[in-house]
Specification:
By secondary structure, this protein is mainly alpha-helical. It has three helices and no strands. It starts with a helix and ends with a helix. The mean pLDDT is 86.
Length: 49
Amino acid sequence: MLREIRNQFSPGYPDDIDLRAALLNKAYSLAPELLATLKRLENFSAKYA
């Protein structure tokens, strides 16, 4: 999922404002899932700090 979002923001159509807006809206809707993933990574890595 993270790779997919990253790839969608890579410069493919930098002048297409509607496409950029759609991608931002998609990323925003996925924010809770992305934040949950970050929390899991933090919890996992805390064991090794």
